[in-house]
Amino acid sequence: MPRTDVVSQEKIADGLYRMVIKSPVDLSQSAYMPGQFLHFRVSDSIDFMLRRPISLCLADEANNLVTVVYRAQGEGTKRLARLTAGDTVDVIGPLGKGFPLHEESSATLVIGGGIGVPPLLELAKKLRAKGTRVVAILGFQKASQAILIEEFKALAEVFIVTDDGSMGKKGLVTDLLDASMTDGISRYYACGPTPMLRAVKETLEPSGILGYLSLEERMGCGIGLCAGCVHKIQDNDGVHYVKTCKEGPVFAAEEVVFS
Amino acid sequence: MTPHDVDLAVEFCGLQLKNPVMPASGCFSFGKEMEMFYDLNLLGAIVVKATTLEERMGNPTPRVAETPAGMLNSIGLQNPGVEKVIRDELPYLRRFSSLPVIVNVAGTMVEDYVAVVHRLNDSQDFDAIELNISCPNVKCGGIQFGTDPEMAAEMVSAIKEASNRPVMVKLSPNVTNIVEMAQACESAGADAISLINTLIGMQIDVEKRAPLLGNGIGGLSGPAVKPVALRMVYEVASSVNVPVIGIGGIFTGKDAIEFLMAGAKAVQVGTANFTDPYAIPRIVDEIKDWCVAHGVKRIDELIGAANPMSRRRG
After folding, report:
1. Is-cis flag, bond preceding A119, omega within 30?
2. Reported ipTM
3. Which fold has domain B3-57+76-197+225-303?
4. What is the pTM of this model?
């Protein structure tokens, strides 16, 4: 398998790491999208043999570097967190379908929860590059797990909520989704835990604002072979299980079925 | 001697394979996803995802879980149904000039297995059937035929009568006597036997105090099952005259060679495709390198090399 260089690795919050690697593909020749993921092997042995999908957080075309921010929770991702500059890592990607960008001048809302926040950074960057105003609602469990705040502030008007009120407003991201927040917003993008995505979709549905959700399902292969990571999607033919690794992880919110 | 001097070609069920390595059903979808990685002509053959009469949604999620040196899955035979497979999937595979195509057929009753085969008979876009009587992830059908020799024989007879193409039967390891199952299938007319499908297993989510998989149980695959698979291939290859195809935890060329030496005519690679998308061409290269290092000119020399009983048969 092709391996790529680890350029840097740092702990940025409690259990959360930022790793910069050489892109496994030439970004300038690639149609990569924010919301796509990179698929890492965390072990060269037959233990921890399934790859770990981690969303693209930032792409640096000029230097052909990609940044990922991830939580080292299980033994597999903890192994990833032990890599340092000079190591190499087996990674494929960017994979999947990311956040579509639209030609529009009005404001866009990005809503992230926890480890769902990082992929929205590259999205915010791309939206700003198109001249779109970006409003970001970022939710974390607590201040010690808050990440990428300054990076978002450089691109967006930022609102923060935490479960325990240790940073920003106490509560959930949906608590901020009132008329004053959504006024003038033409589209939203959300990434986070499934209960958050469901609440965001249900809260914003009556407003008629179209949006996209980046779904999280346990993946087997990440390349469309195994049908492990499916989610229910409603389309013209009815409700189907669709592979989130290949057809997603980003879907139009109105297609996503939560049940 | 160089890798070019090694003849890896094998033949079974009238299929000519340029090498003995093919993907296992359910671990390669219908092949299209792999075109971004390599030319499918590098495969010995392709076995596509299990195909049923009607579309099947499959099981609730989570459907996969990592285990020590392996994984559990409970996909539940999600597939678009035979009509769409014939219309949308198989024609694509005919673009590859030297790629035998094997369709894995599944169902719940003899009648719907037969109906799938009747429908497939009209298609020119495949070469053989692999009869799936071993899926552990559907409540009714599948594995019930794979754990009772009489029911297996009844199914194989019906499919042999219905099919105008060779029929390979894929066995479940979740039985007391694998030889009895293989012999029942052979007597009923099976043209080849492939084994093993997954071993039934489970994982508990200790935080939720509940089974992790949405379906509760799932099928264990990967290197963890290789010794079990190898033993069963060895036993079956010693006991039947039809070709045996070895499946179970093959990750390297050496793993594949172990199965060939146990008496398998060819092998299928499943879980390794998830870890390494280039697994199959890599395994083919590793087999060639091993042959060069050991002065083996034809892969045939290795088949059954560790199992004299199998050499006196098929």
Report:
1. no
2. 0.94
3. TIM Barrel (3.20.20)
4. 0.95
